[in-house]
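Hey team,

Filing this mostly as a record. A colleague (T.K.) asked me to run one chain through the structure pipeline before their review meeting, and I want the input and output archived in the tracker in case anyone asks later how it was produced. No errors, nothing strange. Just documentation.

Input sequence:
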Amino acid sequence: MKNHKEKNLRDIREVAARKLARSSKTAYELTVQLKKLGYEEEDVKSTIDSFLEIGYLDDYKYSLSFFRLGANKGWGEGRIKRELGKKGVSQDIIMKALQNIYNDRDDIKREDLRALEVARKMVSLEDLNSKGFFEDKIKSRIARRLYSYGYSSDLIFKTIRTLERELMDNGEDN
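Output structure:
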């Protein structure tokens, strides 16, 4: 019986290692995948624990990497947190990663700059009315996009005002 148990553990660890070699995963994601393959709870837990201990799995490092990926896509912190939560990362780890991401990397743009970059791609000077403001329809379109990217309402309104001023200033230069 012991040999069968050792073989199962060796097998599950090989499968888990192959899955991680293909792409990074959170402990939760790997747990779900191994359970779907029919491995016993005890073997899955043992494998996850050993992978965490030796550093093959690290939800904090995964979160830092995922934050960079999300930031490069123009996502706000709200969306990044939501997506990490879906992947089973604890709120403590998510908050720790978010607190440290800007210190660890100089190339990560601040959230307000990412929001402005996303919004800039959606409008031009022609979208301003004669008073230098966006029509409600344009504001709504920008707000929906930024909201779907995980930006807060305060930041969305600030971004729209900043973009209106920016377009007016650039329009006056021409």
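Quick notes for T.K.: The chain has a mean pLDDT of 88. DSSP finds nine helices and no strands in the chain.
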